[in-house]
Specification:
With about 120 residues, this protein is of the alpha+beta class. It is built from two helices and seven strands; from the N terminus they run βββαββββα.
Length: about 120
């Protein structure tokens, strides 16, 4: 798998293949759970999600974590991929004592798409 940005053919190459006919790791075993890619802002995340949907890529899920918004999908080899953006720190949910209050709630993908 090659990762690229800005029109360059590739910046990073990853080998996620154990070999022809190799079995996938058992669920719950050690290994890569997923790769997370931080995007610079909500409009950038929305643009990527729109492009994925335009190409028929199915999302596995979408979550609002209070401090960030994330979508989850699988690469062609079945590896988990998280694409996310952080909210501005001033918008993070906080308890009365100032500590962060993170959560996992469904993300309104249609609302996200209005940011692109």
């Amino acid at each position: 798998m090659f990762l690229s940005a800005g029109g360059y053919h590739h910046h990073i190459g990853l080998n996620t293949w154990a070999g022809h006919g190799a079995p996938r790791p058992a669920p719950g075993s050690t290994g890569l759970y997923h790769l997370a890619i931080l995007l610079p802002d909500r409009p950038a995340l929305a643009a990527v999600v729109r492009r994925l949907m335009d190409h028929g890529i199915t999302l596995d899920g979408a979550s609002d974590h209070g401090v960030s918004e994330a979508v989850y999908l699988r690469d062609p080899d079945g590896n988990g991929v998280e694409l996310y953006c952080d909210r501005p720190a001033g918008d993070w949910p906080r308890a009365p004592d100032g500590s962060l209050v993170m959560y996992t709630r469904p993300l309104d993908v249609q609302d996200l798409l209005t940011a692109s």
